[in-house]
Design brief:
heterodimer; A: alpha/beta; nine-stranded mixed β-sheet; five-stranded parallel β-sheet; B: 284 residues; mainly alpha
Chain lengths: 426, 284
């Protein structure tokens, strides 16, 4: 006797679920090979438009951060072109989708360099994406302008970091986290529970945070890494409850951070613990909602709500051109990257990789929305302001979402842990 | 003691939430043998409809009911137009329902965009059970899941409809010969499965990220629940499967890192299937 007259058994169902899991990722691989467009006049030639390859997370797990990413760069390029371009040459963008997958990034970077013959690359979002694009940039000797808050540079992650062809426009932990630790510890206590996604950025960020925490007399009472796409957090929440922590230090990303924070709030634990996230900028916080974020801390180099003269102008431009985009630290870093590179090209008088690189080194940009930004020559690390904000009760939009509670005007990041510094003489 | 109690609460609630999410899949697969890859999209649709209704000022409970009905209607249309021509053809229904998943997910993106949405927790606060506690809303979801499982058990084992459904599982041809109205019953089961997916999507919406692809987070887990629990053993199988996939993670997380805990649970599921290919509560 059989339960099934149709011939399905559990084996075929298992195969089916595996098939399903595979099929989820399959379409994105197929569409990665889009037809090439014309070669254009880039590739180091000295006439015609300056061609830039932009790699943005337009689909996939990190889409939530992706719109600001490409919009920030586009906004700056429109301004550059409106002012006549660089050396009389207009900028031309080739925007591609990373699909949030490193192997797609490698393909796209190769295509941009070989077929589109771009003069340099900008973008990629996650550390894994940057690590996929950097070898291509190195091999083709093109620059890669990287916008995201990230884990800092350490030789073992070469060529993704410690690479003379890569410039970092976002903050690393000694800028994003360290300046605010004393403030948090004084106010809420020094027992940290760390929870992050299971990849290099959270692990390195936590390593550096723990280092500083120890120095300041605090302690780590728990450290948990979560595989991507975990829906349920019950067991982590009870671990946190038992840990006696003062502060939940959070570096989850994508939908995981949303799921975790909504469940933390639903479990009624927000009143017992302080949350400090180094991931959830305006777009992610919008996804989590006001009830589950109220009172939580976030730190970055830029927030939509900071009050600087530059940001006031910048906000107007964004609202006019991209009223639907939630602007964030990554979009602003892309904006700064384009403007600083335009200045570097003017200063160098040419678009060659070597000339633009030395012009970018030590360059200061006073037009950055967050204040002033200097590209440190020795390790290509941006010297940036740092803000700690708190989510406000019943916020309705990024306009009234965050209030600055602590800030540092300019932070010198710790020196990159690279074998040879300065990078470009290596 | 407090730690033990909170562990128990955690295991029970993880299990029940996973059971809620898997139930629709188990019903459709267990009763009419359709591997409904569209289940994930139905969950997402339930969450989005709940979000849209409550955004329009409908009280949360009513919004969930409306979303359940909405997804049931979508399931009915899908069944009437396409699925009914493909019963008894497992591979075809698998592909077709995967197509359904892709289409619905893209439609959600077109209609509501791909930014994350959220629903304010309708019942904030916690119940404290001695030294441990549980969120009121989560407790409510668990309660609804228990009621749903009980209702399902009663329907299957205490009503005439249940007798016919069970007859179909046990011996399809005989049941058909004895006059079970198969097309109507198949349609009823498929729509009920869709409604349960809609209900689950609506109920979990305040605790999770609402995004077009949210179903993928659950689909593979739900499939494991259904296969490990045991095909056709709808109430018990779903519970046992959920306890193994959801609850056991909590136990392993006590002594090992999360990454390991989540992996070992799936490994255990595979081992369980090696020795009980019909699922833990399944019958041959």
């Amino acid at each position: 006797m059989t339960t099934s007259s149709t011939g399905i058994d559990r084996r075929s169902l298992l195969k089916a679920s595996l098939f399903g899991a595979g099929a989820i990722t399959a379409p994105s691989l197929l569409s990665a090979c889009s037809p090439k467009s014309s070669g254009g006049g880039g590739g180091g030639s000295s006439s015609g438009p300056i061609r830039v390859g932009v790699i943005s997370p337009l689909s996939g797990a990190w889409t939530v951060y992706g719109k600001a990413h490409s919009a920030g760069f586009q906004l700056a390029v429109d301004e550059i072109n409106a002012a006549g371009g660089s050396l009389g040459r207009k900028w031309e963008l080739v925007v591609t989708d990373s699909k949030t997958e490193p192997q797609v990034v490698t393909e796209q970077a190769n295509r941009l360099v070989r077929e589109e013959q771009v003069d340099f690359l900008a973008g990629t979002f996650s550390s894994a994406e940057r690590n996929a694009a950097a070898p291509v940039a190195t091999q083709a000797d093109k620059l890669l302008l990287y916008p995201t808050f990230y884990e800092g540079q350490s030789q073992k992650f070469y060529p993704g970091v410690c690479n003379p062809n890569v410039f970092m426009f976002g903050p690393e932990p000694s800028e994003q986290v360290w300046p605010h630790m004393e403030y948090i510890m004084k106010k809420h206590g020094g027992k940290f529970f760390m929870i992050g996604s299971d990849y290099v950025w959270p692990r390195e960020t936590n390593r550096l945070t723990k280092e500083k925490l120890k120095e300041l007399g605090g302690s780590t009472v728990g450290e948990v890494y979560i595989p991507f796409n975990t829906p349920q957090y019950g067991s982590v929440l009870s671990q946190i409850r038992r840990s006696g922590a003062d502060v939940i230090f959070l570096s989850l990303t994508g939908s995981d951070t949303v799921n975790f924070r909504r469940q933390l709030a639903a479990a009624g634990m927000k009143k017992d613990f302080v949350v400090w996230t180094v991931d959830d900028e305006e777009a992610a916080t919008s996804g989590i909602g006001p009830d589950a974020t109220e009172g939580d801390y976030v730190s970055f180099d830029y927030f939509w709500s900071i009050k600087t003269p530059n940001n006031e102008t910048f906000r107007k431009k964004v609202q006019e051109k991209y009223p639907k985009v939630i602007m964030n630290t990554v979009g602003v870093a892309m904006y700064n990257a384009a403007h600083m590179t335009a200045k570097a090209i003017e200063k160098a008088g040419e678009v060659s990789t070597d000339a633009v690189r030395s012009a970018l080194e030590d360059m200061t940009f006073d037009g950055a929305p967050q204040g002033s930004l200097t590209m440190r020559a020795e390790d290509h690390q941006a010297v940036l302001p740092s803000y700690l904000v708190q989510a406000q009760p019943n916020w309705t939009s990024p306009d009234n979402m965050f209030k600055v509670v602590h800030s540092v005007e300019s932070v010198q990041p710790q020196a990159a842990q690279c074998d040879k510094l300065p990078l470009s003489k290596a | 003691m407090a730690a033990f109690l909170s562990l128990v609460i955690d295991i029970v609630s993880s299990t029940l939430v996973l059971a809620l999410v898997s139930l629709g899949l188990g019903v459709v697969f267990g009763l009419v043998r359709v591997i409904n890859m569209g289940h994930g999209a139905m969950l997402a649709l339930g969450a989005y409809l709940t979000w849209a209704f409550s955004g329009a000022g409908v009280p949360f409970a009513l919004a969930v009911v409306a979303a359940t009905a909405g997804v049931a209607v979508v399931g009915l249309i899908f069944e009437a137009l396409i699925i009914r021509h493909f019963y008894e053809q497992p591979f075809e229904t698998l592909l077709i329902s995967w197509g359904f998943y892709l289409v619905v997910t893209e439609l959600i993106k077109i209609v509501w965009g791909s930014t994350l949405k959220n629903i304010r927790n309708p019942i904030p606060g916690t119940f404290s059970l001695g030294p441990a506690g549980i969120g009121r809303y989560e407790a409510m979801v668990c309660l609804v899941t228990i009621l749903l499982l009980v209702a399902m058990g009663l329907m299957l084992y205490r009503t005439n409809v249940g007798v016919r459904v069970r007859a179909m599982i046990q011996n399809r041809e005989m049941a058909l010969m004895l006059g079970v109205n198969a097309p109507r019953m198949y349609r009823g089961v498929f729509v009920a499965g869709a409604a349960m997916a809609g209900l689950a999507g609506g109920l979990i919406a305040p605790m999770f990220s609402i995004e077009p692809d949210m179903g993928t987070l659950w689909l593979v887990r739900a499939f494991f629940v259904v296969t490990v629990g045991g095909l056709g053993a709808i109430v018990g199988g779903t519970l046992v499967g959920s306890a193994l996939i959801g609850g056991a993670t909590s136990i392993f997380a006590l002594v090992s890192p999360q990454v390991f805990a989540q992996t070992v649970v799936f490994a255990l599921a595979v081992v369980a299937l090696r020795f009980r290919p019909v699922g833990i509560l399944g019958r041959r």
